[in-house]
Amino acid sequence: MSGARTGPRVVALVPAWKAEAFVERTLAALAAQDCDGFAVVVSDDASPDGTASVCERFAAHDARFRVVRQARNLGWVGNTNALLAEGFAAGAEYLLFAFQDDLPEPDYVRRCVAALDADPGAVMAY
Questions:
Q1: Which residues of the chain have pLDDT under 50?
Q2: What pTM, to 2 d.p., does this model score?
Q3: How far apart are the C-alpha atoms of 32 and 41, rounded to whole Å?
């Protein structure tokens, strides 16, 4: 990416729906990432349970987290597209999807960024 970055270097995008029972563990795993310039955007897809409340409580204690509540259910594709728009608007160099039930190791994001930085021709790391 050329030019000055205006936001975090890496934004994790978390599409969530009906995840009240387990999303907090995912958010905690993301909060434990040891990568500098890291932020998280969660998009609750109008969940009928307490998913949005769990995410908002978590975000209230960690400024790297932001929650978007969809007014109506967009479905998986609509919700992930909405998240991509949020990620691009954040000015991030790298975006990653972190799904509502994934528990990445604390060094996952840092290692992916290092792999991408090491190979300018790379377009994806996992």
A1: 1
A2: 0.92
A3: 15
Q: How many residues does the chain have?
A: 126
Q: Residue 35 and residue 38: Cα distance in Å, rounded?
A: 6
- CATH number of the domain to which 40 belongs: 3.90.550.10
Range of the domain at 74: 10-118
Tokens of residue 18, six digits? 């009906």
Classify burial at 23, counting beta carbons within 10 Å of its beta carbon; exposed 0-12, middle 13-18, buried 19 or more. Answer: buried
pLDDT at 63: 96
Residues 6+ away with beta carbon under 8 Å from 119: none
Residue 4 domain flag = no
pLDDT at site 3: 57
